[in-house]
TrEMBL record:
Alphabetically ordered keywords of this record: Flavoprotein, FMN, Oxidoreductase
One annotated GO molecular function: dihydroorotate dehydrogenase activity
Cofactor(s) of this protein: FMN
Species per Swiss-Prot/TrEMBL record: Hirondellea gigas
Descriptive protein name: Dihydroorotate dehydrogenase (Quinone)-like
Amino acid sequence: CPPLLVKLAPDLTPEELKQICSIAIDRKIDGLIISNTTIDRPSSLQSVHRSESGGLSGKALEHKATEAIRLAATYTRGSNICIIGVGGVSDGAGVYAKLRAGASLVQLYTAFVYAGPGIIRETEAQLLDLMTKDGFSSVSEVIGKDL
């Protein structure tokens, strides 16, 4: 069977997320993609579209998604579930935060759309600088460091 990944919203309560993680472990789900878009509108959002309904993506989602990753990584600790960190990643610091929160893989999408392909090399260089500064020599050393 191909790997099965489940994409979760960052709007789940900690208890809901814990229940889903427990089911994912029991059902041997291969991974969790955290997070989908949010229905929240943070007070920092300055868009003229702030009052529109629907899922919000991009930078405004960053901290909420990272916290959901941290919780899911805590709830799935010791299992074989891979966590893919998604939401608001626009630079090496964003990748680093999601790795430290427990993501094994990180997706950069909205920033890629707006900044173009050059953002990949730039993000990689920033990530390597942060890792070196903190004494890490590989990404695997960083994963879950803040748990």
